[in-house]
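Dig into these lines:

——
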Amino acid sequence: MKNCSSFIDSFAFDKRLAVYDIAGSVAHVKMLVKCRIIPSADGAAIIAGLAAILADVKKGKGVAAQEDIHYAIEKELIRRIGPVGGKMHTARSRNDQVALDLRMYVRDEIGNIQSLLKNIQRAIVHQAHKNIDAVMPGYTHLQPAQPVLFSQHILAYGWMFQRDCQRLDDCLKRVNILPLGSAALAGTSFPIDRRFVAKLLSFDGVSDNSMDAVSDRDFAVEFLAVAGIIAMHVSRLCEELVIWSSAEFNFVHIDDSFMSGSSIMPQKRNPDVAEIARGKTGRVYGNLMALLTLMKGIPLCYNRDMQEDKPPVFDTVDTITAVLTVVEHMIDSLKINPGHMLRATERGFLAATEVADYLAKKKMPFRQAHGLVKQIVLQCVKNNATLADLSLGDWQKYSPLIQSDIMAVIDPLRIVQTKKSEGGTSRQSVLRQLTNLKKLCR
């Protein structure tokens, strides 16, 4: 193999960093002029040349392919303004340059993903408001457990996505550190002003160690880890939508635009969008593992393996962006079936815990009450009856503590309204959640 350039080139994927590479170069050149490392006239010519290249890039013209986007832009600049363009690279290396570009890219995408998360939160808030009083079974182990408000259930995902936004904020603290000025690995002998560049590029600070700065990809690993958690939350939500939209549950109707048919069964409505969104989670996890595996055995400082850090990051951004966008619209168009949800609370003895609490409030030890209610449920199962089928006489066979008010105790509509503890499923508690979440996702 005489020429392996196509194997080692990264232009095919790192060209999406062009705008960041140019922005970083402009700031670097302004610093070189300020510190009198290059003449102001040369700096002005370089900056004007970069501005012209940027305008073309934004029009979709791009630059001619080279080994990587960094060299491609520098070569194009020299082609346009002559040898003076070569002064742009004074006091820096591609090692700190590429680290800068990736940090700027991730910084922007953190903001974009947070905006998409807030869109999903708003769709969730909309559904919770619209269906504030709908009662449904809450589940543990996918078995009916206790009645809850649908709004409480869907808002749980709103708070998951809020934590995702917080994680991205925290990740940003470590992303937004300037590596430029570290040069290849040892820093530079030129009298540069790194904090001036940091201010121009809106970085919060500069890296403390030049060797760490050029070899650090922790920020990218952390970003992919947060993306993995986001994907996991979306996957859980989509799993619920798949279950709820099944004929057996029939709790929700997913709009036709998010469903597909079967090639052989004309009656089918398959929740393909939810399933594909669920499946994309594996792809995001894979990208995280790819980057962790890439970095695990690399000695300081920069090694060429590290150019493979970008495809997992880019693919994750594309995947998460697409998933969050489509899922937002799917949630927003969702229609629920409150009547069927309420009827489902009649199955599974969802009021059993309430009966145990009822007896405990009448001074029966809770563990004894728990055992007694278990006996009642087993007898109902044996007789193919529900708790609502029992007469007062039936109840009092088990305990004289049970009075006529037991019928109100087992009413699912009443049960949810008794859960007034902070964060609980009562209408009052859910409305507080809605108010708080609405403020956070504005």
